[in-house]
Amino acid sequence: MATLQALADLRADFPLLDQTVNGHPLVYLDSAATAQRPSVVLDAERDFLERRNAAVHRGAHTLAAEATEEFEQARAAVARFVGARPEEIAWQLNATDALNTIAFAIGAASRGRGGGAGSEGITARRFALHPGDELVVTEAEHHANLIPWQELAAQTGATLRYVPVDDDGLWTIDDARAVVTDKTRLIAFAHVSNVTGMVAPVPEMVALAASVGALTVLDACQSAPHRPLDLDALGVDFAAFSAHKMLGPTGLGVLYGRRELLNALPPGRTGGSMITTVTMEGAEFLPAPQRFEAGTQPVSQAVALGAAVGYLESAGRDAVLEHERALAARLYDGLAGIPGLRLIGPGAGAERAGLVAFDVAGVHAHDAGQYLDSRGIAVRVGHHCAQPLHRRLGLTASVRASVYVYNTEADVDTFLEAAAGIRHYFGL
Prior knowledge:
The protein has 428 residues and is α/β, with parallel strands linked by helices. It folds into 2 domains: 4-30 and 316-422, Alpha-Beta Complex (Aspartate Aminotransferase, domain 1), CATH 3.90.1150.10; 45-313, Type I PLP-dependent aspartate aminotransferase-like (Major domain) (Aspartate Aminotransferase, domain 2, 3-Layer(aba) Sandwich), CATH 3.40.640. The chain has helices at residues 4-8, 39-51, 62-81, 95-110, 147-156, 173-177, 202-212, 231-234, 259-262, 299-315, 317-336, 365-374, 387-392, 409-419, 422-425, and strands at 20-21, 24-25, 27-28, 89-92, 134-138, 159-163, 184-190, 215-219, 238-242, 253-257, 275-278, 283-285, 341-344, 355-360, 377-378, 380-382, 398-402. The strands form 5 sheets. Strands 4-10-9-8-7-5-6 form a 7-stranded mixed sheet, with helices on both faces. It has a 4-stranded antiparallel sheet with strand order 13-14-17-16, covered by helices on one side. The longest helix has 20 residues, at 62-81. It is globular and about 70 Å long. Keywords: Pyridoxal phosphate, Transferase.
């Protein structure tokens, strides 16, 4: 599939979209928060639960073997989808959990905990932080990619620094170069901002980190679902993304890490399923990814995510990206023509992801969202877990409309018609 119309026809695959809300056909423009699921994903999880539900990597009975095989097939599918090896993909509770797993592991290494058998002579000492070391984020980060590093800095005595944004909420590689020093040990940043839609200069950031020997951590929550992604080619050390933003279930996140790094990191959580040998005095841990999957795994969720990436592959990732670009341009151009709206992020003609956040003069974002909801239109309102960014922009909240593979030009036009009436509705 390669045309806007062909992808628009996929809407019929999503049962939830076929309903009315407050007397209007549902227009769902909140996929940056949670995407809807096609029938094939719902059916894949249901079929697994009805026919093969069992504990994986334990037990010798047939169901356990079948469940383990499907579980690992899903891991391989997700790895292929993002340009990784299966052993570089560890299941987590969500992307927030995945980012915390990295921070916990670095914290453990900083306390002297040993890791595993990393290749190329890498040991846990590679990750240890000390007072005077620096961690770098951007002012535009989601809280999930900010607070773990705040906590890690507080625990280790390292200093957290940030790349500032401009009046549009944007930053450049030159801004990053002005902050990164030879004391920088880790740089964490979003591939795509969940507020501005800005696409980060990942290759340049990876090169900048390499020039000072720093690790890179990529928040790929808003990129993995929407655009071709090859983590190995990008060269990042770690990455995280969520299943529920890419047509999959809640309760599942993905941690990517280069194999030699994951195997050298000490696990931040311990328990069953991630060990080789346990005595009353100590334990030895499995190689990655199992060393980061303590306890009972999210098996049916992983199977469902495997089906989701298969669906996106069949749609065509380049086609999905072009579809969203077209809808995003329609969104931006339409909103830019409505008086009293302040749009956040890249301007007309600049690259942006399939989302637009804006402020309505004289109307609180929550009131604007409730008005849109009365018209059957679902958008996100609030600070989008990015309070520092909103504070920098002089806002407490904004309205965000985001598109995905199942949205149509009609969805966008219905939203724009309603958005044009917000200020009038409130008497402005």
